[in-house]
Amino acid sequence: MKTTCAGSPTGSASTSRDPETVPEFTIDLVSDTSTRPSKEMLAAMAAAPTGDEQRDEDPTTLALCEEVADYLGKEAALFLPSGTMCNLIAFLVHCRPGDEIICASNAHVFGSEGGGASAVAGTQFRTVETADGIFSGADVRAFSRPRRHRSPRSRLVSVEQTTNRGGGAVWPVETLAEVAAAAKEAGLIVHMDGARLPNAAIASGRPAAEHAATVDTVWIDFSKGLGCPVGGALAGPKDFIEAAWTWKHRLGGAMRQSGVLAAAARHALKHNLERLAEDHANAAALAAGIEDIPGLEIFPTVPQSNIFFLNVAGTGKTAPQIAARMAEEGLRLGVETPTRMRAVTHLDVDRPGIDLAIGIIRRAISG
Ligand SMILES: *Cc1c(COP(=O)(O)O)cnc(C)c1O
């Protein structure tokens, strides 16, 4: 008999999938979450000293939190199962129901986290229209509401480093400082969704702590460019992390022998940070290798980090048609809309893989 893990008895394409029909892609550029834990990472996980995390007795998790706090220049950090939970807990601690969060219109917190900020934290968003996901101090001034009985309370500004749906753009440290200054003036808290802050640090040549210096709270994802199977870590002042612990527990994010996961993250911080430069070079090489395909538009034309978009509207083919052709040769890109695709480079695709991908994309679009 066939069973399903999905909530509904019939399931659906996205919630229940026959394990035997999960496709394999030789070159998977759909996301930097596609990475598999390396042999060395798995060995580090197997060798990790562990204890009960809920009792603050897991030595590997404690060590990881210290390292992350250090890396981000914050007092304390908290290990969590996902980046989504990092954002949600930050909003839960900082905001009260009815409060308003200012973010970019293409922000992950707004469009890609199941509406958790509204459903769980009771907050609402006020979004700034921006193609690359970056906004200014003037935008913060324009979008924060003066205190009135009838208005929602403007409470927090959320910035995303790098901007995922903004095409991997890197917020300059100076722009972050300007936004933070405007937020402070308006009495607002600043939170950084730093899912790819490590990429921003490598791309800009400025340490992660410099990017985080003007924000109140910040997190990094281990399951993106850093190549871990699971996890994120949220950082900020000690009292914030103390309050965040309560929410971690309430939401079911408190773990037991989490050291096996924290060990993967510690391994990644040691071995997978500097090499992000390779992913950025590979994204640039991929973009350069396909930019002359007739009808294809690339955004941004020169990738700043490991993400860029392909607008295929002028090619005479739809994104799903192109994706199907690519799949025949073992390549996957993201299909965002009928005319838009996304390419994300990561540590499981090397330069020879990129060179192959260039040929496959050319054939899929022009062949
Ligand atoms: C992936 C991502 C998240 C969520 O992280 P998960 O670990 O997948 O929950 C949040 N923000 C951005 C910008 C992301 O890319």
Provide an overview of this structure.
It is a single chain. The chain has helices spanning 39-46, 59-72, 83-94, 108-111, 116-119, 137-143, 173-185, 197-204, 208-212, 238-250, 259-271, 276-290, 319-328, 351-366; strands at residues 27-28, 76-80, 100-104, 124-128, 154-160, 189-194, 217-221, 232-236, 297-299, 307-311, 331-332, 334-337, 340-344. The chain folds into 2 domains: 19-37 and 275-366, Alpha-Beta Complex (Aspartate Aminotransferase, domain 1); 48-271, Type I PLP-dependent aspartate aminotransferase-like (Major domain) (Aspartate Aminotransferase, domain 2). The chain is 39% helix and 16% strand. It is built from 14 helices and 13 strands. The strands form 3 sheets. It has a 7-stranded mixed β-sheet with strand order 2-8-7-6-5-3-4, with helices on both faces. The chain has a 4-stranded antiparallel β-sheet with strand order 9-10-13-12, with helices on one face. A two-stranded parallel sheet has the order 1-11. Helix 13 (319-328) crosses helix 14 (351-366). It is α/β, with parallel strands linked by helices. The chain is globular. Residues 82-84, 108, 160, 164, 193, 195, 221, 223-224, 232 line the site of pyridoxal-5'-phosphate. Pyridoxal-5'-phosphate binds at residues 82-84, 108, 160, 164, 193, 195, 221, 223-224, 232. Residues 1-24 are annotated as: Disordered. One of its GO terms (molecular function) is L-allo-threonine aldolase activity. Keywords: Lyase, Pyridoxal phosphate.
